[in-house]
Amino acid sequence: MTQLMRDDTVVLFPGQGSISEGVGAPWQNSPHWSIVSRVSEVSDIDVAELLLNSPTSELVRTDRAQIATFTLSLVGYYDMRDTGLNPRYLLGHSLGEFSALVASGLLSIEDGARVIAARGSAMAQAATVVDGSMVAVMGGELEARHALENLPDVWVANINGSGQIVLSGTVEGLSYVLENHRELGWKRATPLPVGGAFHSPLMAPAQNQLDAVLESVAWERTDHILIANVDGKAHTDADEWRQLLSRQLTSPVEFLAATQALPASVTHSIEMPPGNVLTGLTRRIREFEAQWCPGSYQEMKELAQ
Known about the structure:
This protein is α/β, with parallel strands linked by helices. It has helices spanning 34-43, 47-52, 56-59, 62-82, 96-104, 109-127, 142-148, 171-180, 207-216, 238-248, 255-260, 277-285, 297-301; strands spanning 6-13, 87-92, 132-138, 154-161, 164-170, 188-192, 225-227, 234-235, 268-271, 290-292. It folds into two domains: 6-128 and 201-304, Malonyl-Coenzyme A Acyl Carrier Protein, domain 2 (3-Layer(aba) Sandwich), CATH 3.40.366; 132-192, Malonyl-CoA ACP transacylase, ACP-binding (Alpha-Beta Plaits), CATH 3.30.70.250. Helix 1 (34-43) packs antiparallel against helix 4 and helix 6 (109-127) runs antiparallel to helix 9 (207-216). The protein is globular and about 50 Å long.
C-alpha cells in the first residue's frame, strides 16, 4: 500500500496520564502486538501484564505508566501505517515525544524502550527525594497565569491551553493552590494521580541518568516533522532532539504553543492509544476538519475505509 507523506494530518502521542486499567485488551489482535514483547525484553518489564491485567494502582507508577503508554502508542501507530496513512507531522505530549521519535524513525523501538525505561526509573527515584505531585488548574485568564509564577515550591509544568495549566510542586505548595485557587483566579483545581512533580526542578536528580541514555542510543534521520514541547517549534535534527529531551525533564510542556505551531494546512488529527486526552486539548486550541482517536485495532482499521 502506497505510503506517501500526508501534510494535512498530525499524529498525536499521549503522555502517561492517559493510561488506564485493561487498556491494551482492544489491541491484542493487532499484527503489531509483538512490539509488546520487544519492549518487554529490552526494559525487563512485563508490558503485556501492565496493559492487560495490572490494576490502576500499579499503572500510575511512573516507571510503569511510561513504558506501557509508549508501547501501546507504537502498536497503534504501526496499525495506522498499515491502513496506508503516513502523516508527516508528529506531536507528542511529554512522554509522547519519545513515542513520536520512534514513529519518525529517529530512534528504533528497542532504543526508544531503553530510553523510556531509564527515564521512568530515574524519574521515579527522583520523586522519592521530595514528596511532590501535580495539580491541574482550569478556567483562568492571563492574570491568573501570572499569579502562579512566584508561588513558593510550585512550578508551571504543562501549558495545555489558554485556560488550562498543570502545576508541579511540593505537597505543601500544591495544597496552598488547591485551597486558594479561586483567589488566584482559577475556577477549578484538581489533584492528578501521578507519582511525582514532573517537568519541574524537583526532577533534577534524574538528569544525569537521562542524559547518559540519550547519549548511548543510535540516532537516525527522518522526513517527518516533529514539534517540540520545550519551545513549540519544529525540529528534525537528532542532536537537537537529544538536547530538547534533556531540557524537557525539568522544563514546562508548551503544548499550547506546539499545537499552534502546526501549519494551517494541517486539518486532521489522529490520536494514538491510549485515550483521547490530546484530541480534546487540541480541539480547544484550533479548528480541525476531522479528528480521530481509535480505541481498538478494529477502529484503527476502519480509518482506511
